[in-house]
Amino acid sequence: YNRGDELLEAAKFQQAAEQYRRALELDPENGRLHYNLSQALRGLGDYEGQKRELESAIQIDSNLAPAYYSLAQLYVKQGSVAQAKQALKTALAISPQFAEAQQALSSLDGDRERSE
């Protein structure tokens, strides 16, 4: 688990993903591990895998605010602004001081206002 974190920090995404997958074999109900695997998959450009792992993380631990934030980023990439905003609102309901989520939601609200 810690080894995966070190590899993720070092941007060694493939090796990090392998470490997290091994850890998940031992602890499949660990939401944080699913979240961490999603971040490694994002680094590899596997956005479908990232989404799958984020959804698993949230299903296991519905209070994992960073997972909602990452899901929002993925929704924005896919052009699903309404879903992104909902994910950000959920992240902020869990963690009201989550600055990145606050900024992202403000940015999306600003983009909508400018386009009207």
List keywords for this structure.
mainly alpha, Serine Threonine Protein Phosphatase 5, Tetratricopeptide repeat, 7 helices, globular
Shape: globular
Helical residues, percent = over 70%
Mean pLDDT: 94
Order of helices and strands: HHHHHHH
How large is the count of helical segments?
7
Ranges where pLDDT stays below 50 over 5 or more residues in a row are none
Number of strands: 0
Largest sheet: none
Task: Give me the secondary-structure category.
Answer: mainly alpha
Class of the largest domain in CATH? Answer: Mainly Alpha
Rg = 15 Å
Distance between the termini: 46 Å
Share of residues in strands: under 5%
CATH architecture of the largest domain: Alpha Horseshoe
CATH topology of the largest domain: Serine Threonine Protein Phosphatase 5, Tetratricopeptide repeat
Q: Number of domains in the coordinates? A: 2
CATH superfamily of the largest domain: Tetratricopeptide repeat domain
Structure description:
By secondary structure, this protein is mainly alpha-helical. The chain has 2 domains: 1-61, Serine Threonine Protein Phosphatase 5, Tetratricopeptide repeat (Alpha Horseshoe); 64-116, no CATH class. It has helices spanning 2-9, 13-26, 31-43, 47-60, 65-77, 81-94, 99-115. The longest helix has 17 residues, at 99-115.
Write the layout of secondary structure elements.
Layout lengths: L1 H8 L3 H14 L4 H13 L3 H14 L4 H13 L3 H14 L4 H17 L1
Compose a concise summary of this entry.
By secondary structure, the protein is mainly alpha-helical. Helix content is 80%, strand content 0%.
